[in-house]
Amino acid sequence: MKPPAWLAGLLALTISASAAETPYYRVAVCDWMILKRQKIGAFQLAKDIGADGVEVDMGGLGDRHSFDNKLCDPAMRGQFLAKARELGLEISSIAMSAFYAQSFAEREGVDHMVQEAIETAKGMGVSVLYLPLGVRGDLVKHPELREAIVKRLQAAGRQAEAADVIIGIETSLDAKAESALLDEIGSHAVKSYFNFANALQNGRDICLELKALGRHRIVQIHATNSDGAWLQNDPQVDLPKIKATLKAMNWSGWLVIERSRDASQPREVVFNFKANAAYLKQIFGVEKPSTIRSQE
After folding, report:
1. Kindly report the CA angle at 290 between 284 and 295, in degrees rounded to 5?
2. Tell me: the pLDDT tens digits for 85-135?
């Protein structure tokens, strides 16, 4: 039964007003980096830190058939989603962080693992998955793995396309080479998950790399450097310049905190992540999504 015209109009205005209050840039934290990997307590901790959301991991892999994923259980997914709603948080993305150490090119059963991650994301209403190619999939050090990685990412792209989600990959390549890789994969459902640290550790300029990739290729950003100093104390990170670059590119989305922990207290989660979240929000502020639309 359709609502009367006056009520439909009121609902439309309410939805429009609500959307106008949505931040243009939002800040999330990785659950495994705040020591709450696939734990519901990650949401309260993220709230205490001052984040807007959580990047939820699929769990460890080791020698298992697939991830140690509690979120296969609909009841568990429901508890996570209820806690997020209660605290006013979102799930920015679903991560397959196990591939930091595992070989995406060589590990058996990758298609099943990707599908499980996609189904988990869909079950939680999340549209972005994070896939690092990691140490053993480093295409600078292991160019011989390129063909296998491309074929597997083409298959993953087809899986993602069918589910209407996006897989964001993190590579060790520079922006030009990563753009060529994405073009070779040839799927609109496989994009770049940009990481400040990858650029900085290889002597690259973050802003030039962002512009070379272009906004359509970037799905989300890990907005931290390697550990040692908070973002605000890191001479390598010019956050105001990065913001200006992203705004000029018309890019919006999640800025996800992974590291940038102070060397003197690396295990103090709130101490480190709260400082980085506050600085990201100080620089990026709250923007209106109607001002500049993202990833069209």
Report:
1. 75
2. 999 999 999 999 999 999 999 999 999 999 999 999 999 999 999 999 988
For the chain, the DSSP string reads -PPPHHHHHHHHHHHHHHHHTS-SEEEEEETTTTT-TT-THHHHHHHHHT-SEEEEE----TTSSS---GGGSHHHHHHHHHHHHHHT-EEEEEE-GGGGTS-TTT-TTHHHHHHHHHHHHHHTT--EEEEE-TTTT-TTT-GGGHHHHHHHHHHHHHHHHHHT-EEEEE-SS-HHHHHHHHHHHT-TTEEEEEEHHHHHHTT--HHHHHHHH-GGGEEEEE---STBS-GGG-TT--HHHHHHHHHHTT--EEEEE----BTTSTT-HHHHHHHHHHHHHHHH----TTTS----
Nearest to 198 by CA among 223, 220, 219: 223
Residue pair 67/113 in contact (Cβ under 8 Å)? The answer is yes
Amino acid at 137: G
| Domain residue ranges of the chain, discontinuous segments joined by + | 24-284
Q: What is the largest CA-CA distance in the chain?
A: 63
185 alpha carbon, distance to own chain's centre: 20
Q: What is the pLDDT of residues 53-72, one digit of tens each?
A: 999 999 999 888 899 999 99
CATH of 24-284, picked from 3.30.70.870, 3.40.50.2000, 3.20.20.150, 3.20.20.70, is: 3.20.20.150
Here the tokens at position 248 are 């000029």
